[in-house]
Amino acid sequence: MKAWIRNLSKQQLLIYILITVAFISSIIFVNHNHEFYDRPIAKITNTVETDKAETVDQHQNQDYRVTQEITAEIQNGSNKGEMIEITNEYSGSQAVDQLFDTGDEVFVTIDESTSSGTIEDVKRDKYLILVAWIFIIILLAVGKKQGALSVISLAVNAGILSLALDIYLQNSDLSLVIICGISIVLFTVISLLLVSGFNEKTYTAIVATLLGTLSSLLIGYFALSVTGEQGLRYEEMSFLSRNPQIVFMAGLLIGSLGAVMDVAITMSSSIFELYEKNNQISLKKLKASGIDIGKDIMGTMINVLFFAYVSGSIPMLLLYFKNASPIGFTLSMNLSIELARALAGGIGIVLTIPIAIYTSIFFIRRKRART
Amino acid sequence: MNVLVLLSIILFTLMAIVGGKKGIKSFIALFLNFAIVIATVLVMNDPNANPIWLTLLACAFISAISLFYINEVNSKTMMAFLSTIVTLVILLLFIIIITDQSMIQGFGEEEREEMMAFSLNIGIDFVKVATSVIIMSTIGAIVDTAISITSPMREIHYHNPTISRKELFLAGIRIGRDILNTSTNTLFFAFFGGYMGLLMWFKDLSYSFGEIINSKVFSDEMITIFTAGMGVAIVIPIASGMTAYYLVRGKQKN
Question: Which string of b and e fits B170-193 if b means at least 16 CB within 10 Å?
Answer without folding.
Answer: ebbbebbbbbbbbbbbbbbbbbbb
